[in-house]
Amino acid sequence: MNTSLTVARRAALRARAVAPRIRSYATPTTAAPTSPAPLTSTLPEDDDPQLADYPRLPFVSKQTRPARGWEDLQFRRNYGEPLHEQEEVLSMWGPDVPVVPPQTAIRWFSIAVLGFVSFGVLCNYGHPEIPAVRREYPFGGLVNELGGLDENKARVEQDSEADE
Length: 164
Description:
There is one protein chain. The chain is mainly alpha-helical. Helices cover 34% and strands 0% of the residues. The longest helix is centred in the C-terminal third of the chain and has 25 residues, at 102-126. The relative contact order is 0.09.
């Protein structure tokens, strides 16, 4: 049994030597991937007296951070890292960072809407006329036969051709 214990200790020492432990308590120095449209604030920061000496952190979503190298992989943050004042908007659970710039997305959406509307207009003007004569009802559109209400009136008969 002592031999198995010594073998286990040697294996643990070899594993520790092969894979050194990397632990950091600060934000990793690796560059964050560039986002096509980062969430940045262009408004000047007002001094909020309630924040006092709390650090002014940049308005950048945590979704733009690299996926690995954090103590809390789900939220992409390290232990002791200060939270932003608007953490609920900038966290991993906040609104998604747009993949495409908004101007490009609006242009693509406009092109798609224009395509659908053009197709509908083309179909409307492209269908042939009805190859039959529409039905006409006598007695002022069968008002009395349908209950005497003007709302129930069928298409009114046109006597313009009959008079000639």
